[in-house]
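tool=predict chain=A
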Amino acid sequence: MKNPTLLLALAALAAAPLAGAQSPALTASRAPVRAAVAAGLDDPTIVAIFDAANSWDIETSQVALKKSRNKEVRRFASMMVRDHKAVRQLGRDLARKLHVKPTPPGKDFALYIDHVAAMKSLRTTKGKAFDNAYIDHEVSYHQAVIDAVTTQLLPATKNAELKALEEKVAPEFVAHLAAGKEVQKSLVK
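tool=predict ok
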């Protein structure tokens, strides 16, 4: 379920896969692309991406709560549902306060396509294979969210309150990534 397009997919506007994006040379060569992508984002689109990313993580985690029998996986999935519902609500409340009408991503949005594929895979996988697939997805998903927020969404955000919300919840996403990696280590592959 690891999708190399997920890093830029959250920002929704780039088509090039980012496999190997940890390379400094590759990262530097993509800097102008990222700047151009970020420049094309507006606050209503960022609000919609924020909402969709939280909603999709809630959905995958609800599947884990139904299918997994692993105590650590279930504990992690419960935390994802609880935390992402709370963060999504903060975003929705702010959108209402600011009278922002989110511009939802379409069905051609790369993160939506990845989510549909992840859900299909998670719904058809069972047992330990499911636990591994879910946690592997969560780790890559949270890394992609962190990367996209820091390199694309934050730089493109114009509204100070929206930027403050993104900065406020960023440590939570980092904590989720760390927790996911811990569960990932505990699972027998």
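The chain is about 75% helix and 0% strand. The helical segments are 6-9, 24-39, 43-67, 71-97, 110-124, 127-156, 160-186.
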